[in-house]
């Protein structure tokens, strides 16, 4: 709109200057000279405005093309969620010292028995299922200000910048129930519908050193949720307790895995 407004202002200025010039020509120049000047000015003005509009259209088209290319580069087409490349770009920005939105928590989501779903219903239905889950996660992004990304395959990841461990757990549990409530038929599931497992971790409570460790912690919690049969949400601390060890022990294993 700014480019278009500027264009109209320029066109109006051209018309005004040409009108003043022609008027002065008729007042102070011979009539034949004034007529010739009027014809020349009119043709020049029309050509200038037409060329200007054409160049503006090309400029706007180039801007839109660059915008679409940027979206395709950063967006997963199937789910309309930001992709893995965009995820790590955002994580890098969050870890900057002067970041206004530092990472505080991670939520990992995995669709239960998705391979069986693909094998039974086919990949087209599998893509439709991923698209429905992606739509659900986009709504949660808007509702809770948690940025969700497609992590790969049937896995998704959410980044929190403001919630406590307990609040992230409540969001994870709500998300699990919502995805089950989508009522996507799945004959390979004991519940007859598509479900998901969710793992989460929070930086302060889990004493994470950075986003890589926090992702590993949430992923371990996700693994614990799936090990307990799926269709459940598990936090890193609870997952550690269920394994019969201390949180510190698992934390050391996590850091050892990253070294």
Automatic annotation (TrEMBL):
<protein>
    <recommendedName>
        <fullName>GGDEF domain-containing protein</fullName>
    </recommendedName>
</protein>
<feature type="domain" description="GGDEF">
    <location>
        <begin position="102"/>
        <end position="238"/>
    </location>
</feature>
<dbReference type="InterPro" id="IPR029787">
    <property type="entry name" value="Nucleotide_cyclase"/>
</dbReference>
<dbReference type="InterPro" id="IPR000160">
    <property type="entry name" value="GGDEF_dom"/>
</dbReference>
<dbReference type="GO" id="GO:0043709">
    <property type="term" value="P:cell adhesion involved in single-species biofilm formation"/>
</dbReference>
<keyword id="KW-0812">Transmembrane</keyword>
<dbReference type="InterPro" id="IPR043128">
    <property type="entry name" value="Rev_trsase/Diguanyl_cyclase"/>
</dbReference>
<dbReference type="Pfam" id="PF00990">
    <property type="entry name" value="GGDEF"/>
</dbReference>
<dbReference type="GO" id="GO:0052621">
    <property type="term" value="F:diguanylate cyclase activity"/>
</dbReference>
<dbReference type="GO" id="GO:1902201">
    <property type="term" value="P:negative regulation of bacterial-type flagellum-dependent cell motility"/>
</dbReference>
<dbReference type="GO" id="GO:0005886">
    <property type="term" value="C:plasma membrane"/>
</dbReference>
<dbReference type="InterPro" id="IPR050469">
    <property type="entry name" value="Diguanylate_Cyclase"/>
</dbReference>
<feature type="transmembrane region" description="Helical">
    <location>
        <begin position="7"/>
        <end position="27"/>
    </location>
</feature>
<feature type="transmembrane region" description="Helical">
    <location>
        <begin position="33"/>
        <end position="52"/>
    </location>
</feature>
<keyword id="KW-1133">Transmembrane helix</keyword>
<keyword id="KW-0472">Membrane</keyword>
């Amino acid at each position: 709109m700014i480019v278009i407004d500027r264009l109209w202002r320029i066109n109006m200025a051209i018309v005004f200057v040409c009108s003043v010039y022609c008027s002065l020509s008729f007042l102070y120049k011979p009539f034949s000279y004034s007529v010739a000047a009027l014809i020349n000015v009119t043709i020049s003005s029309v050509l200038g405005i037409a060329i200007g509009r054409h160049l503006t259209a090309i400029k706007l088209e180039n801007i839109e093309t660059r915008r679409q290319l940027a979206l395709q580069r950063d967006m997963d087409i199937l789910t309309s969620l930001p992709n893995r490349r965009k995820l790590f770009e955002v994580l890098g920005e969050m870890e900057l010292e002067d970041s206004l939105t530092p990472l505080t928590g991670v939520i990992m989501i995995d669709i239960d028995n998705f391979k069986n779903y693909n094998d039974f219903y086919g990949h087209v239905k599998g893509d439709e299922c991923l698209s429905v889950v992606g739509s659900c996660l986009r709504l949660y992004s808007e509702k809770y200000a948690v940025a969700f990304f497609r992590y790969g395959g049937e896995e998704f990841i959410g980044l929190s910048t403001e919630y406590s461990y307990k609040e992230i757990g409540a969001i994870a549990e709500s998300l699990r129930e919502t995805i089950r409530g989508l009522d996507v038929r799945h004959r390979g599931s004991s519940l007859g519908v598509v479900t998901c497992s969710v793992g989460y971790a929070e930086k302060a409570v889990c004493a994470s050193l950075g986003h890589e460790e926090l992702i590993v912690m949430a992923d371990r919690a996700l693994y614990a949720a799936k090990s307990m049969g799926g269709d459940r949400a598990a936090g890193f601390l609870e997952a550690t307790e269920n394994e019969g060890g201390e949180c510190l022990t698992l934390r050391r294993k996590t850091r050892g895995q990253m070294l």
